[in-house]
Amino acid sequence: MDEALVKEIAILKKQHNAVILAHNYESDEIQAIADYTGDSLGLSRTAAKTDADVIVFCGVFFMAETAKILSPQKKVLLPDLNAGCPMADMITAEKLRAFKAANPGRTVICYVNSTAEVKAESDICCTSANAIDLVKALPVDEKILFVPDMHLGRFVAEKTGRDIICWKGFCPTHMKITADVVRSARQRHPLAIVLIHPECMWEAVQEADEALSTGQMLAFVKKSEAKEFVIATEKGILYQLRKDNPGKEFYMASPDIVCPNMKKINLLKVRDALLKMQYEVTVDRVLAVKAKQAIDRML
Ligand code: SF4
Question: Any idea of the CA torsion for 110, 113, 118, 124, to the nearest 10 degrees?
Answer without folding.
Answer: 30
